[in-house]
Specification:
Elements (H helix, E strand, L loop, with lengths): L2 H15 L9 H28 L3 H23 L3 H22 L10 H37 L12 H60 L3 E6 L4 E4 L1 H7 L3 H4 L10 E3 L12 H8 L3 E9 L5 E12 L5 E10 L1 H69 L5 H32 L7 E4 H18 L3 E6 L6 E4 L1 H17 L5 E11 L2 E10 L31 H11 L3 E7 L3 E12 L2 H9 L4 E4 L7 E5 L3 H14 L2 E5 L2 H11 L3 E5 L7 H10 L7 E6 L4 H8 L5 E4 L4 H12 L3 E3 L16 H5 L3 H12 L3 H14 L1 H12 L3 H8 L2 H8 L1
Parallel strand pairs: 8-10, 15-16, 15-17, 17-18, 18-19
Antiparallel strand pairs: 1-2, 1-6, 3-4, 4-5, 5-6, 7-9, 9-13, 10-11, 11-13, 12-13, 14-20
Bound molecules: adenosine-5'-diphosphate.
Adenosine-5'-diphosphate (ADP) binds next to helix 13 and helix 14.
Length: 838
């Protein structure tokens, strides 16, 4: 047999001997396996050596050996099948039986086999634990005691073995086999648990170190925490507090500890001083709910008397058995915060109060401003009305008289001066009103073709007289290519130039004034530049922008009069027309104002076409129906003007001095057209219009309002009152006729009035005409005329006009010329006069 073969046989047999099965990895089972195998070897040794040579009773000894062999094999089988306890018992029990038989059969208490009783408990202790070992030891002691007693009672033990020392050695070997492995196993286990304990001890030490460090950390955090941290036991007594807690409670921690959470030492109240209940106290709430509570607020009066406001968060602490063991609370002193909050609230309320007060003041100021603005508008409307109404008459009559064919040329010239002065006055009024309108917004350019050359010449002529009076040169330069006819807002451009030229004359004492025109044309459009340069006092650079603001005048010019509105209006106008107005000036050297305007080119034909419609009306075209026109007007001069205009053109005219008279006149006469003054005594134009519209046929009559108001918003208010149209005072005759043309469709003969087309005359003043007058009115008029008291004459005519408008108009036309004699003659015919004189 080779070396390798014998090695593999050994390996095979080793693997056979090794423990298998479910207990293969159990150390006790493995040792037991080894022990059983060793004991089986010992049994084999008995068969081979002990039984043949030393046994006295061989069959009995063989039976014992066989019993042992069977029990060990059974034990091995049980081990392999995983039943450790069965294997242990089937090893221990037969071993004990065999050991007891061996001891008794080899000399009882004197037997060397007694060593089994020492070895067996060791095996039992190893396999069954200390209780088993105790039971085993007691069993062995008891058995040996029985042997002693039996022997003492005189029964000597039998001797089945020879006195040869070898059996004793076999017994010793058996005992060692039984005890040695368990002792080794126990020692190993002891060693292992010793090492484990040592390791655990080190771990414990490390854990203690970590715990100490953690405790130091926690106590550091607690001591430096700004919040008070207080621990309570299950009864609510304080067991711990940190430094912040001491200062909140007002007690050192030794004094605070053992005091209850609601100790009378601290007077606890709500923030507003009310009594506290358990609901207000954090510990009581935690104890009753066993939950964390947050922001529980109450006030605490410290033993020293200081009152602190607290906000507390608290959490319950449970014992190992899960029972309530106390609570930990984090306490914040919120006194400062609450005070700041209260201050903030107070401040906010105060601020709100301030804002309310300020708002009220502002509302008051706004209302006052609105009222002032309204008062201003009212004032302007009234002023406009008051100024424009007489101007209406002045301009209207001046134009009528100058148009009249029988007016001598000298008077016509004077009438033109009256007209110009009236127009200038009107412009002054307009300037103030215009500023008000610009302030209110809503002005736009009113573009139409016009003769630029004519406009410039007109203004130059206007200024020339004043310039000459001051000894100033006036030069007019027009660059080649500047168009003669353009489309733009002529009225605004005229206003700008009059103002700039007027200022130039006003602020220049020596030298002259240049009016220069230049242009840059591109297609149909042209950029027109007009410069007004003077050699006057000039304007300091600091004032050069200011003077374009309303009511601003510069330097010593305050003494020159004026309103300070002109340049502001000019710049606004230039802006409205899409252009600009600029200035270059040096004090002492003069000023140069430059207007730049984008304008459209136009031809003379455009101007003619534009002017055609504005040629004066001579009369209604022959063949037109007879139109009845009611004039509702309280001012004698105005109704006379309208009446003359309309009657002169061929309309039938009646007059009504107020709204109520207008309504009854409408019912009686059914006019086609009504001129309704808006401000009337007794019943105003609005009410009269409303009533007329409500009457049968009232919807068909055309009504046009006449007003001196300048405000556009009033225009829409008037139109919404039910009138068809609207004409402002002072009106031009063309506006009156155009309005009636629009609404009645009446056709006119137009052209320049000549002697061949006189105005239709008023009836001739005669005694017959006056006969219709009551005696009282006649006497009144006669008295006034005799005293040549113009105001009394006007008053008398006004009274007469109320009942006899046409007679009133005839008388007024004479009174206006101070032609009192014909009036007197008509009142008192010559025969009467003679009779009266005689
Ligand atoms: P007004 O002439 O009515 O005072 P303006 O608005 O037309 O109002 O002018 C404002 C001011 O600008 C004038 O008061 C004057 O001080 C200054 N100013 C206007 N034009 C001239 C000028 N050509 N030369 C010197 N100063 C002028």
């Amino acid at each position: 047999m080779g070396l390798t073969e014998s090695r593999s046989t050994a390996q095979k047999s080793a693997s056979l001997l090794r423990l298998r099965g479910p207990l293969a990895s159990d150390p006790s089972a493995r040792i037991l396996n080894a022990q059983l195998l060793g004991l089986l070897c010992w049994v084999a040794l008995q068969y081979a050596v002990f039984l043949p040579f030393f046994a006295v009773r061989k069959p009995a000894a063989a039976a014992l050996a066989t019993l042992l062999a069977v029990s060990y094999l059974t034990s091995l089988a049980l081990l392999r099948s995983g039943r450790l306890r069965g294997a242990e018992l089937s090893y221990l029990l037969p071993t004990w039986i065999v050991a007891t038989i061996l001891i008794y059969g080899s000399g009882g208490i004197h037997s060397p086999a007694l060593v089994f009783y020492a070895a067996l408990p060791i095996s039992v202790a190893w396999l069954l634990g200390y209780r088993g070992a105790l039971a085993g030891t007691i069993l062995c002691l008891a058995t040996s005691l029985v042997m002693v007693i039996v022997e003492v009672l005189g029964v000597p033990p039998p001797r089945y073995f020879s006195a040869n020392p070898w059996p004793a050695w076999f017994v010793l070997l058996f005992a060692i086999l039984i005890a040695a492995l368990p002792v080794i196993a126990v020692l190993r286990a002891l060693n292992e648990s010793l090492a484990l304990s040592r390791h655990q001890l080190e771990e414990l030490h490390r854990a203690q170190e970590a715990l100490r460090a953690e405790r130091d950390l926690v106590s550091g955090i607690m001591e430096t925490s700004p919040a008070g941290i207080v621990a309570f036991n299950r009864d609510g007594d304080i067991t711990f507090t940190n430094a912040a807690g001491e200062s909140i409670l007002g007690l050192s921690r030794t004094d605070a500890v053992k005091r209850s959470y609601n100790s009378p030492e601290w007077r606890l109240t709500t923030f507003d001083g009310g009594a506290v209940t358990d609901e207000n106290l954090a510990f009581a709430r935690v104890r009753s709910s066993l939950r964390t509570v947050q922001d529980v607020c109450f006030a605490l009066e410290q033993p020293g008397g200081r009152r602190v406001l607290l906000s507390v968060n608290a959490a319950p602490v449970f014992t190992g058995g899960g029972e309530f063991g106390g609570a930990v609370a984090s306490i914040q002193d919120v006194t400062e915060r609450r005070n700041v909050e209260a201050e903030l609230v107070h401040y906010r309320e105060h601020l709100e109060e301030l804002v309310r007060q300020r708002t009220a003041e502002l509302v008051q100021a706004r209302d006052a401003a609105l009222a002032a603005n309204h008062a201003k508008s009212l004032f302007l409307a009234n002023m406009s009305h008051e100024l424009r109404t007489p101007l209406n008459a002045i301009l209207g009559f001046a134009s009528l008289m100058s148009d009249a064919p029988d007016t001598p040329d000298t008077q016509r010239g004077q009438l033109q001066i009256v007209t110009r002065c009236g127009e200038h006055l009107l412009e002054l009024i307009n300037e103030v009103l215009e500023t008000a309108k610009i302030e209110a917004g809503g002005l736009s350019a009113d573009n139409a073709p016009f003769d630029l050359d004519g406009l410039v010449m007109e203004i130059a002529d206007m200024i020339r007289v004043r310039a000459a009076e001051k000894g100033l040169q006036l030069s007019l330069q027009k660059a080649p290519g500047v168009p003669s006819v353009i489309t733009a807002d002529a009225a605004k451009l005229r206003q700008i130039l009059i103002n700039l030229m007027g200022n130039a004359v006003k602020f220049t004492e020596r030298g002259g004034i240049d009016l220069r025109l230049d242009s840059h044309t591109s297609g149909n459009m042209c950029m027109l530049t007009i410069e007004v340069a003077d050699t006057g006092i000039g304007i300091a650079s600091a004032d050069q922008e200011r003077i374009f603001q309303p009511f601003v005048q510069a330097g010593k010019t305050l003494t020159e009069g004026g309103t300070g509105l002109g340049l502001a209006i000019c710049r606004q106008y230039a802006g409205i027309m899409g252009g600009s107005l600029g200035l270059e000036s040096a004090p002492g050297k003069g000023s140069r104002f430059r207007v730049t305007l984008p304008v459209q080119l136009a031809g003379p034909a455009d101007v003619r076409a534009h002017d055609a419609g504005s040629q004066p009306v001579i009369a209604i075209e022959p063949g037109e129906p007879e139109y009845r026109v009611l004039v509702v007007e309280d001012k004698i001069e105005n109704w006379m003007l309208l009446e003359r205009l309309l009657r002169g053109a061929g309309f039938q005219v009646r007059l009504a001095p107020d709204g109520a008279a207008a309504v009854s006149e409408f019912q009686a006469w059914h006019p086609h057209f009504i001129w309704m003054d808006w401000r009337l005594p007794v019943m105003d134009g609005r009410e009269a219009t409303k009533r007329i519209r409500a009457l049968p046929g009232g919807r068909d009559v055309k009504i046009a309002a006449v007003t001196a108001s300048v405000f556009d918003e009033e225009r829409s208010a008037i139109l919404s009152a039910g009138v068809d149209d609207f004409v402002r005072k002072p009106f031009r005759s063309s506006e009156i006729f155009d309005c009636m043309e629009r609404h009645l469709g009446v056709k006119y003969v137009r052209g320049n009035r000549t002697a061949a087309s006189p105005l239709l005359p008023l009836p001739v003043l005669s005694a017959e005409l006056l006969q219709a007058l009551p005696e009282e009115l006649r006497a009144d008029l006669a008295n006034a005329v005799l005293h040549t008291d113009i105001s009394r004459v006007t008053a008398a005519i006004s009274r007469i006009s109320e009942g006899h408008p046409i007679l009133g108009a005839v008388l007024a036309s004479h009174a206006a010329r101070l032609a009192f004699t014909p009036i007197l003659q008509a009142i008192r015919p010559p025969a009467d006069t003679v009779r009266g004189n005689s």
